[in-house]
């Protein structure tokens, strides 16, 4: 007959908070976000030569519009989650038309670049 052992777990909340908001956790979180940024860039649609010509004619050759693919940034910060501080990193696209690329609009179907990026990261990407 096997012996029964009773175990009691008492979380060390200050210790967990220090770990979740410490520099090593920041490095891990930011590293994952940068991998996600690379995936997002690889999944991003590229303008065709015809589209680039249209925008150059419309806005002028020297005033080229912001390119979606080149507008991804990683932001990191400490925020409170479930009552404890922890590092959070986000991947954002600052292009003015980023929402149209992600979700679509009247003229185009959404590409779900960030949604597919999240799926790739969750799958181990």
What attributes characterize this protein structure?
125 residues, alpha+beta, two-stranded antiparallel ribbon, elongated
Structure at a glance:
The protein has 125 residues and is α+β, with helices and mostly antiparallel strands. It has one domain (17-122). It has helices at 13-20, 23-43, 49-59, 98-103, 113-122, and strands at 72-81, 84-93.
| Order of neighbouring strands in the sheet with most strands | 1-2
Terminal-residue CA separation: 46 Å
Q: Uncertain spans, ≥5 residues at pLDDT below 50?
A: none
Number of strands: 2
Number of domains: 1
Taking the sheet with the most strands, its summary is: 2 strands, antiparallel
Global outline = elongated
Which structural class do the helices and strands define? alpha+beta
| Mean pLDDT figure | 89
Report the β-strand fraction as a percent range.
15-25%
| Rg result | 22 Å
Please bin the fraction of helical residues.
40-55%
Provide a count of the helices.
5
Written as H for each helix and E for each strand, in order along the chain, the element string is: HHHEEHH
């Amino acid at each position: 007959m096997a012996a029964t052992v009773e175990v009691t777990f008492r979380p060390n909340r200050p210790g967990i908070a220090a770990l979740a908001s410490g520099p090593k956790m920041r490095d891990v979180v930011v590293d994952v976000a940068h991998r996600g940024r690379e995936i997002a860039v690889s999944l991003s649609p590229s303008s065709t030569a015809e589209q680039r010509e249209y925008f150059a004619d419309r806005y002028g050759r020297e005033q080229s519009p912001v390119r979606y693919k080149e507008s991804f940034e990683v932001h990191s910060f400490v925020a409170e989650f479930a009552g404890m501080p922890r590092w959070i990193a986000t991947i954002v696209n600052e292009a003015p038309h980023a929402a149209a690329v992600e979700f679509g609009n009247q003229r185009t179907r959404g590409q779900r670049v960030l949604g597919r990026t999240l799926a790739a990261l969750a799958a181990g990407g």
